[in-house]
Amino acid sequence: MLKIAKVLVVTFLLSVTLAGCIFAPYHKTAYYDLSVEPVRLAAAANVKVSEFDNESGAGSKIRIRINKYRIVDAGYSKWIQTPGELLMRSLNKAFAVNYTTDAPACEIYGTLDTFEVKLDKMQFAISGFYTIRRGKSRLDRQFDISVGLKEKSPVEYARAASAAVNQLGKELAVEINKILKK
């Protein structure tokens, strides 16, 4: 009888002790978006940005490169869309100020190779390739943009990512303006 009582007491104590490990505290997931500025072109144009192919390996979780070999997710911090979708929506929004139905479409599409926080360099980096097509004109370019981080926080990562996408929008505008002159 004493042996059974000891087993019951030990079982009870173990179950109470381990119950805290089973039920981790709830963490609310925070979602982040990019903030873009309008990008004006030299002439009115119908710019259509397609979703960039996401070859970066990043999904909707904010991706953090700790060093050359180690990558982690930012826990309960996510983008509202995948990186390729974020780029498409943000750039379409940035170029919407130039919209006209009278001009032939300028199509932009590409591949995203990097979309991550580089903590070892305190930067947010995006890189990849894009193609701009308008009629028979076609332009292919590579981009590699890094923006410095002021602190380690998801809000700062979103600010730096927005700055990088704004910079890409300005780079695209320069190339689109060259095509519009042809």
Describe this structure in words.
The protein is α/β, with parallel strands linked by helices and about 180 residues long. The chain has one domain (about 30-180): ABC-type transport auxiliary lipoprotein component (Rossmann fold, 3-Layer(aba) Sandwich). It has three helices and eight strands. The protein has helices spanning about 1-20, 85-95, 155-180; strands at about 30, 45-50, 55, 60-65, 70-80, 105-120, 125-135, 135-150. Strands 1, 2, 3, 4, 5, 6, 7 and 8 form an eight-stranded mixed β-sheet that branches. Strand 7 and strand 8 (about 135-150) form a beta hairpin. The longest helix has 28 residues, at about 155-180. The N and C termini lie far apart (about 95 Å). The model has no long low-confidence stretch (mean pLDDT about 90).
Q: What is the alpha-carbon Rg in Å?
A: 24 Å
How many angstroms separate the termini?
A: 96 Å
Number of spatially distinct domains = 1
CATH architecture: 3-Layer(aba) Sandwich
Largest sheet: 8 strands, mixed
Q: Mean pLDDT across all residues, rounded? A: 89
The H-and-E topology, N to C, reads as HEEEEEHEEEH
Tell how many strands the DSSP assignment holds. 8
CATH topology: Rossmann fold
Q: pLDDT under 50 segments (min length 5)?
A: none
SS class: alpha/beta
Supply the number of helical segments: 3
Helix share bin: 25-40%
Name given to the CATH homologous superfamily: ABC-type transport auxiliary lipoprotein component
